[in-house]
Known about the structure:
Elements: H1 3-9, E1 17-23, H2 26-33, E2 40-47, E3 65-72, H3 82-100, E4 104-107, E5 111-114, E6 117-129, E7 132-143, H4 170-184, H5 190-195, E8 203-206, E9 209-216, E10 222-226, E11 231-234, E12 239-241
Parallel strand pairs: 1-2
Antiparallel strand pairs: 2-3, 3-7, 4-5, 5-6, 6-7, 8-9, 8-12, 9-10, 10-11
Amino acid sequence: MDANRLSLLLDESLPDVHLYPSVPSTNLVAKEYAEKTKEGIFIADYQTAGKGRMGRNFFSPKGTGLYISFLLRPDIPAEDVYLLTTTAAVAVCETLEVFSGKEARIKWVNDVLIADKKVCGILVEGGFSSDRLDYAVVGIGINLFPPKDGFPEDILDKAGAVFTTPKDCVEELTADLITRFYRLLAEDCYDRYVMRSIILGKEITIAGKEAVVLGLDEKCRLLVRFKDGRQELIGSGEVSVEGLY
């Protein structure tokens, strides 16, 4: 990442950008900064201990991806933190489509797919005071290019990359994502999130139970119907879809 090139592409009104060759996790760095700065953007060339949902590691090799975290101070109730995930997912989809020309879809709740392969994961973490957010960290990891030695065996069947070969557009793509994300924070992204959902009407497995996805409510919770006919709104959980993962 060329710091000067990126800086020229960003509006001066945006929070400061901090670039690192390597960090354990950009989310971790952002949370450390939460004690001493209001907002910020943190980018690393690679992560030695990238974090995914449910305590998983996030594969973050050098020179192949964009690993970025946003430190925010959103004036929203803690229960509305889901909005940051959906906003980030829409921003990622729109940016990747502009630069790749490929359709990007969302696998609920925080995976972005191209050609049915996961190219991006999103992890939102927060600091809470009572029922309010003191701060939120939105971490985004994008597989821009295929790793030289390929993806690890445990994610080989589900991981993909945006581009098949390196492209000289990383700074432009990054600037577009940053600018787009901050703009979308002030907009309602519900319709754009739903239209990109890859699981509507699909048979899924969640919490070990089979169900059909009927829709997404205004908080992007899944409305599902289980085999016994019971319907339920689900706000979190690990979903697997036949033919995907």
